């Protein structure tokens, strides 16, 4: 969202969901943290994070396009792109972001520890419900739009 804000001069919702939550970023980050949290070398962490982010971005971009007829992003103008779903430049950017967050995450642990377990669980559960409802309604809307487009052709 920040990149699009800088590029287009306004907020652009390129995601599937209507709300401010972009699940692909959360999925990619959570997988990177879970799978790569113990990697010591920052360079290796960037490379492995690039792989995780690229796989997630390709899979979700492809599925959204094929199932819902909605293309979340289009990298066809980028060098080295694969079907417009992924490209080296953004894979590198996501790899650096994921690796940086993984390395900085321990700094946030004292703040997280300040929250009581019930408050933390309630906040996490609330965010999960908001995301699920948003995604479910957005998928329903996109399916309806796809059916409507097919009917008007």
Fill in the keyword field for this structure.
153 residues, mainly alpha, 73% helix, flat
Care to describe what's here?
The mean pLDDT is about 85. Helices cover about 75% and strands about 0% of the residues. The protein is mostly helical and about 150 residues long.
* SSE topology string: HHHHH
Find the structural class using helix and strand composition: mainly alpha
The overall pLDDT average reads 83
- Radius of gyration computed on alpha carbons: 18 Å
Q: How many strands in all?
A: 0
Q: How much helix, percentage-wise, in residues?
A: over 70%
Sheet having the most strands: none
Quote the beta fraction: under 5%
Shape: flat
Low-confidence stretches: none
The gist of it:
With 153 residues, this protein is mainly α.
Topology overview:
Elements: H1 2-8, H2 23-36, H3 42-68, H4 88-114, H5 117-152
